[in-house]
User: Fold these one by one.
Assistant:
Number 1:
Amino acid sequence: MSIPRSRRLCGAAPSLCAIPLLLLLPAAAPANGILPPSYPGAALINEGRRIFFEETFEGNGRTCGTCHPEDNNHTLDPAYIAALPADDPLFVAERPAPNPLAENFEKPVLMRGAALILENTNGFGDLAHDYTLRSVPHLLALRTSLSAPASDGTSQPPDQRTGWSGDGAPVDLDAAPPLRGTLRDFTVGAIVQHLPKTLARVPGRDFRLPTQNELDALEAYMLSLGRQQEFDDLTTIRLTDARAERGRRNYLGEGLAGGVPCNACHFNAGANTDPAFDFPAGVTPPAFESTNRSFAPRVEELLDQPGDVLAGGQLPFDDGFGHGSNLFNAPTVVEAADTGPYFHSNQIDTVEALVAFYSSPRHLRNGEVLPPIVGLNGAQVANVGAFLRVINADENARSAIGLVEQARLLYRPRERRVDLDLARAEIGDALEVLRGAHLHSGDAVPLLRKARRAIARGRLGAAIRHLRRVRRVMIVRPADDD
Ligand code: HEC
Ligand code: HEC
């Protein structure tokens, strides 16, 4: 069986595939949690969710949810890991001897210290030497971040941009069905990489491969997570907090002392390139289209990065896309503030420090010093940080509204609880993100607290009203899409 033609179309233009689904869904349609049966595709997505969190594929006991937990934005950070019990399957490499996964499967010090996971991105040929240590991406808004550039010099397949370097999914054109490096194929790669009983990784003995139905369901579930469309056109919105509003303009390039604006690589705070931006020669091969492009900010070469500090200078070099390209694909920005640490090896903890990475000279491990990528001064760093926090809290509120709306359509208390707990987690994230820079203390923060209390008391209509106000007091949009 080959990958159905319709899926190839989805790969080429994910927005096309979204249309039938979006037309039928209510306006703010997030889909993590449990979907009521009235949602088109609900049965497949809910089945995908079940597989994602329960199916071990007869492997070492891990599920996809072991590293992508839904109450933590489908990602891991050191605090979340510290709260897990010692027998959690995340820690399979730490099980008592005889343990076939004790060596060359994970690096426990780096997992616990910096939430890093071992990946053999160049294949399983030399386990002791050929590996990288990467952070867990959040899986949110995947529908907006997969489209591969046609002409930036990176080969196709991979047909879709998954993983930090955009080549994470296995590519095997001789396999039946052929693996073309799509989101769907990524599931196969994740099982072989993370779920085996032994490092021999023999299918049928160390794990079982997924069925086509399971792949369909997992793909539908992952595509349903988070935003289903691009964030607003940043030139048409206004943030009511003056510092965050200045940050929006700094993000777009106003007041920059040289360099490339954030918006060039993360257009409208997403993962795709600004189609109108003229990249200076040498930044990356030119490709004037809004796709998920790859760049070489060279984060992996920074001197004093946490992985190196924890591993005594021994963090292996991560060579990015393919072999030795140093290219990494741009992740979304809207989802950043509540999903730190940042970058492919969790190099940076807070959004302000992330912006400071871009605006300071890059002192590399080899002694070289490269100029800043984005010419922001210290004040502007804080402004852009405030901007990232507000748009993230807005997305939290949007997502929470959708989850509460879903809960209202469910009858079984246990299922309602799932959606309401996730809505509360979203509200908690918004509070944390805003309070982290003393933003909206007098309006959005108290409204978020009210919304959380309303959910606890079962007053779901009131919760939705508070959350809609949270969005309106922070961002003025030309047409309120609520
Ligand atoms: C042991 C932890 C772990 C487990 C278990 C795990 N993942 Fe991941 N996942 C990661 C890491 C680390 C990355 C980043 C990989 C890279 O960049 O090469 C990732 C990346 C991804 C991505 C790419 C996201 C993006 O933004 O491009 C997808 C999709 C994904 N995982 C799906 C799955 C699925 C499906 C399963 C279950 C079959 C799974 N993962 C199990 C750690 C894990
Ligand atoms: C030249 C293109 C380019 C520019 C300009 C740029 N970025 Fe990035 N950004 C990237 C790439 C590539 C990555 C992934 C790097 C990695 O992990 O090695 C990234 C990663 C990120 C992440 C990490 C997300 C995560 O989930 O860990 C955030 C947030 C981010 N950028 C925000 C910004 C902001 C804010 C600016 C402006 C100050 C900016 N970027 C400027 C290309 C760019």
Number 2:
Amino acid sequence: MLTAARIAAGTLSLLLAHLAVAAECDASAGQKAFQNKCAACHALDQDKVGPHLSGIVGRPMGAVQGYAYSAGLAGAGQTWNLERLDQWLTAPARMIPDTNMAFGGLRNADERKAVLCYLQSQG
Ligand code: HEC
């Protein structure tokens, strides 16, 4: 009986932890921030000043065919994961000094998280 209650309590706290994580990631706030701060140069499905960003989480860095990247990004040889994207959006030129992305960075961690949440939700 006691064991069953403990298991139930454990399951409940796992469930709550899961909900808290889901609620932390705000794709609609991220979409707004993307429109305001990224969309002048980026679209999801076509290259503009910057390369298209659909599927960016898990995509190799600097790898869109036909897009003229900086040497630094073209030669990065790594894959974008959430951690690298967070670092990039904090200060692009700190990560790739010769980057062509003329963007100072998003200093607000919640805003970076929301933008990444939105981009990830777009596949
Ligand atoms: C002033 C134009 C500009 C703005 C604003 C801008 N970018 Fe970029 N972005 C670029 C350019 C140009 C590149 C290519 C950089 C290079 O080749 O070094 C790039 C590259 C990227 C890449 C790497 C893509 C790849 O294929 O490896 C990501 C991710 C990215 N930008 C995300 C964003 C996000 C998210 C925002 C908004 C917070 C943003 N950018 C704002 C111009 C911009």
Number 3:
Amino acid sequence: MGRRFSIPLKFFGVFLLTILLVAGAFIATLNSLRIQVSRNEARAVADQVTAFRSWVAQSGMVWVQKLAPGFHDFLDEQPDASGGTFYGKNPALATRELAMIATREAARTSFRVTSDNWRKEENAPDAFEKAAIVSFQQDKNLPFVEKYEEGKYRYAQPLLMEQACLQCHGDPKDAPKMVLEKYGREKAFGYKVGQVRGVISVIVPAIGINDVLKSLANPYSLALLAISLVLNILFIRSVVVRLIELTRNAEAIAAGKLETVLNYTNPSESNDELDHLYHAVNLLKRSLVILFKRVGGGKQG
Ligand code: HEC
């Protein structure tokens, strides 16, 4: 099979295959890098959400004096000293409003908190989030799940129930009156510490394979590729082309053209096996010349 192809063709094939394999390895590396980059970005968003949530949770509630347009929801209210009202926003609500602002103003990424047993219809999980919650419930050690979906990278990490959450998610009889009034006694109660009952879900733009390929076409990669091409051409010239020349010379000598001149560096000055081969062929040629002279001379004499 290998004998059907000339050495230059074989060499070219091996070169091409090597380039393709290296490119494949490179693209595989870039691919895992692109997932890593998106994952880091999503995790950073999730960490911010967690931090914000725990800030609100530590304060119990954020109280605002004015309900901004589009942000009319609140869990509790209290009169303020000047006859106005303070409106209380609990962690989940404050997080939902943060998500609304973030999505509105920086459409690049979006996040939200959702649950398999949601109180607020807007918080209902989609297929990816539902599956993520089930995965976290089945495997307590799973740190996150991720998926590519229509040009977007999706990421979810579990929200664990803590003691402080049970006030509003444990027994309804412990719950603040406002929670019961607003959401009823059925939804999102009866949870236990350590349970996964929700996720922080983050969407960031996916780095597409096209972006990866485009990033390959940068001046540095192209220059390196050009250098490897030049090195290969030099190698072809110094080895393959000389091998072809030697083959032709040897064939000419075998056909009786003893005047054929072999160009090579003397083996005493060269470690190149081709020079040694040239030299050996040259010695054979000389032997032939001497032999022919003797045979010819014998006839004459
Ligand atoms: C002060 C009461 C209160 C506390 C404490 C509380 N939650 Fe909630 N939680 C709520 C309310 C009310 C909602 C519905 C919020 C909305 O309107 O989006 C909610 C919503 C959620 C949701 C979103 C899904 C849904 O039901 O719409 C998750 C997940 C959640 N809470 C988890 C937790 C966790 C985990 C903790 C503890 C770290 C916690 N909550 C503490 C009252 C509370």
Number 4:
Amino acid sequence: MTDTPAKPKRWVSWAILLVCMVGTFALSMLLASVMERRHEATVQKPLVEIDTWETDSSKWAVNHPRQYAQYKMMDDDNTRTQFGGSDPRDYLEETPNLVILFSGYGFAKDFLQARGHTYSVEDVNHTKRIAGKHDKAAATCWTCKSPDVPRMMAKLGENKVADPNTATFQELILAGAPEFYSKKFADFKDEITHPIGCLSCHDPETMALRISRPGLIEAFKNQGRDINDVSHQEMRSLVCAQCHVEYYFKGDGKYLTFPWDDGMNVEDMEKYYDNAKFADWTHAISKTRMVKMQHPDYEIYMTGIHAFRGVSCADCHMPYMTEGGAKFSDHHLQSPLLNIANSCAVCHRWSEEEVRTRVEGIQTKVREMRDRSEDALAKAHFDIAACMQAGATDEQLLELRQLVRAAQLRWDYVAANNGMGFHSPQECTRILGVAIDMAGQSRIAAARLLAKLGHTDPVKYPDISTKEKAQALNKAYIAGKGPDLLGRTPVAVK
Ligand code: HEC
Ligand code: HEC
Ligand code: HEC
Ligand code: HEC
């Protein structure tokens, strides 16, 4: 016997090796099955095949119950944050100045906060803006409300392409779009019934994100870009940019067009609209040819810090969530302030309270600038009306009206955009600052003109402190019976 320790027997090492191998194998199988489960949850194998043109989102639910369940939560129209939420709050009641700024236009009659996507068809059917005019309003009004729109466009496009069987999804839609737009809203009442849904953003075969609106495809083309040649992260914003953008109805064919040819900043759009000599309506009080901005959410977002750092709309509005070990995108699109933990805390290590305070702080500052520009603009419209009462000619008012048009276009670029400036605070306050300055310039010119015409007293602004008073005033102006603004005895005004 020696005093050196006995060497372990050979079979022991082999046994250890075997145990390790079996263990590793078992562990990797377990891991693989977990990964498989996760993978399945993310890109589920379809249980049923979804038709190429399935516009009923509930049919997609069989394959993707989680996304559908979250999607259906948009039926809740009772949430509220300081400046947002899903309840249809009455903007005109909150801000009677809006009734004056939109005098003579539909938005002065009815302007409610947007609800969730599941209400899109119901809301467009009921808005007073086109109520009673469905046989006159353009079918274009349907465009951002329903996946039945691309379906109908493709149907109209079938006999306009060389071979409908080989034409791509987008080719069919583009071929049918002109005919679709040139029809009337009422023409599609029976066909367009499903609210914004799965087909609005997804290819049913692959579930990949897909663009189904001609406006965005064409706007990209005009800028020399191809909408099908963008990064995945960009797509997570561009699916929203199909609708959450500024657009207008071009020409007699009411062709839905994005005014992006000169760029997406407000100055670029102003140039575009001025070159096209475009106006949405003539203001009932100041007789100025006005442009109504829609909701340039994407354009404004693009100028902000989050776009700069590659954060997409979906990152904040469709954050990942987990359920039973499955990770998927939250399809309940809403104010991120109602879900700060998932929407912001992923990137920002601030408490929920800090995030909310920070956002509301930014929004309150933008709102303050908005209030000031609205006040200046409302008065600028009345100042021009006062000049008209004093006998000013259209020629004398040319510059004043140009300034008011430019100022209100800027104000509206910010006001119509969702999120009260949060998406790009600096750009929004810059634009509102310019709007206030331009409205002020118009008012100074009006004061000079009034003096020249013999009126040096202050203009007598009517009471517009409530929605009702402001709307009654609009009615009077539309009937050619605006009140006397020069402090004389009441007269009827042309
Ligand atoms: C960094 C996160 C973030 C990104 C990115 C982002 N948003 Fe928002 N969004 C917000 C916040 C915060 C609000 C303010 C919500 C409120 O006031 O309750 C908001 C508000 C909105 C609202 C109004 C919601 C409401 O309830 O009032 C819409 C619509 C919207 N965003 C669309 C978009 C679109 C479209 C994009 C991309 C072009 C986008 N957002 C990008 C955070 C984001
Ligand atoms: C407004 C656009 C939009 C609508 C409408 C929409 N989705 Fe999505 N969906 C997205 C985005 C954005 C993603 C994230 C995709 C990515 O990053 O690849 C996504 C992802 C998915 C995924 C991949 C897994 C996941 O959750 O990330 C599935 C499955 C899905 N959606 C199903 C649906 C179904 C079913 C509907 C209809 C009930 C629907 N989607 C409606 C935008 C939309
Ligand atoms: C097909 C057009 C369309 C697409 C695509 C679309 N939206 Fe919307 N969105 C709308 C319309 C229309 C409304 C207003 C619906 C209503 O009030 O009836 C709306 C409302 C909203 C609201 C308000 C809901 C609330 O509770 O405040 C948010 C937030 C929103 N969209 C975010 C997004 C984001 C983010 C994307 C992209 C992932 C997107 N939308 C894609 C048309 C669209
Ligand atoms: C995917 C990551 C990501 C998400 C999600 C995100 N942010 Fe950010 N946020 C950033 C980045 C990156 C910056 C730039 C500053 C930096 O680099 O730290 C930023 C900056 C900010 C700033 C400072 C802006 C400034 O100019 O002062 C605020 C405020 C902010 N985020 C709020 C939010 C809120 C609110 C949400 C949720 C609705 C949110 N963020 C979601 C990445 C994110």
